[in-house]
Write a structure and sequence with these properties.
By secondary structure, the chain is α/β, with parallel strands linked by helices. Helix content is about 45%, strand content about 20%. The longest helix is centred in the last third of the chain and has 22 residues, at about 235-255. The radius of gyration is 19 Å and the shape is globular. The mean pLDDT is about 95.
Length: about 325
């Protein structure tokens, strides 16, 4: 298995220079502790938090990452022009010398659609067109595209990624329909960090069937995101994680995140119930056991851990990364 760390790009409002310094601190810790990749994702107008945008963040982090892969997991592709995005990501792939993954999603927040002038009713068709156009821009020397949302006369393409034929495209999916779409148009389903394990098991069968219907093999890399906190003992882990993680998911519920999930999988739950079979919190043995369940029941090959939440001291997140590197990662690599 491979393991990633989600960069701490969500923060309470205030002192952004210090907060970005903490992003670099956690990136170095993950590198030194043997993690395989670093992840960053995207939101706009993210009250009550500040969000660092993933493309410039990863461009700076590339200088600290060594041989690690960098993953935008995910960017809200529906909000962006695919020509701009193709060249931005190609440039980032050049910066990190071909160690980049491009994860994309629809988004779910009305305020973001409104800010970018996007009709939410068009989001799926815009998304599918954008993915297809980006693939063409990365793999063809000349591109002519005539879609419902995007039009290109025959143009010459000169800014391309280092990776051949192109960087992997992961598709984030919460709903059943989105999981099937991820199978059809993506290289892998980027499994979200919010859903209950039972929901993911059911959706995995939908994903397998959609791959078969499309005549595509099961991907070599199946990535999963999870919120994780680890300490030397279980009581400390729960005590240190709860105030930050609970508040974060109260914000997510206010944003409407749970509405993007199946109705049977709500997020507005008491904290112990929210955590169960959804997040990973505990001592090293607890974390090994829970990670093993996701590996065995879902077949995931790469798990990305978010170990820091808004308001948490960066020292605690670094301690978690170091403890994972010392006690947990070796178990899965031996």
């Amino acid at each position: 298995m491979q393991f990633a760390v989600g960069l701490p790009i969500q923060h309470p409002v205030g002192d952004p220079v210090r907060h970005f310094t903490e992003v670099l601190m956690l990136a170095r810790a993950a590198r030194d502790c043997g993690f395989d990749s670093l992840w960053a994702h995207q939101h706009y107008l993210s009250t009550p938090y500040q969000y660092f945008q993933p493309i410039p963040t990863l461009a700076r982090v590339a200088a600290e990452a060594g041989e690690m892969t960098l993953a935008i997991n995910i960017i809200l592709l529906t909000l962006h022009n695919p020509v701009d995005m193709a060249e931005q990501i190609a440039t980032l792939d050049i910066i990190c010398q071909g160690r980049l993954v491009f994860g994309v999603g629809l988004g779910y927040r009305e305020v973001e659609y409104q800010a970018f002038g996007i009709d939410p009713k068009t989001r799926v068709s815009r998304f599918v067109e954008a993915v297809e156009l980006i693939k063409q821009l990365w793999t063809q020397d000349r591109v002519s595209f005539h879609g419902k949302h995007f039009q290109l006369p025959e143009v010459e393409v000169t800014t391309k990624p280092v990776q051949k034929p192109r960087p992997p495209i992961w598709i984030a999916a919460n709903s059943d329909a989105a999981v099937k779409r991820a199978a059809r148009i993506g290289d892998a389903w980027s499994i979200n960090p919010h859903a209950h394990l039972s929901t993911l098991e059911r959706q995995l069968e939908l994903y397998r069937q959609a791959l078969a219907d499309a005549g595509k093999p099961f991907p070599e890399v199946l990535p999963l995101g999870r919120e994780l906190y680890i300490a030397r003992d279980r009581e400390t882990a729960w005590k240190e994680a709860e105030p930050y993680l609970r508040h974060k998911y109260e914000v997510y519920v206010n944003w409407g995140q749970d509405k993007a999930l199946p109705e049977s999988d709500p997020l507005a739950l008491p904290f112990p119930e929210l955590v169960r079979d959804r997040f990973i919190i505990g001592d090293p043995d607890d974390c090994i056991a829970q990670i093993s369940r996701y590996r065995d029941r879902l077949g995931v090959t790469l798990i990305g851990f978010r170990v820091h939440w808004p308001g948490m001291e960066i020292a605690k997140a670094i301690q978690a990364v170091e403890l994972l590197g010392e006690k947990v990662l070796p178990h899965f690599r031996s």
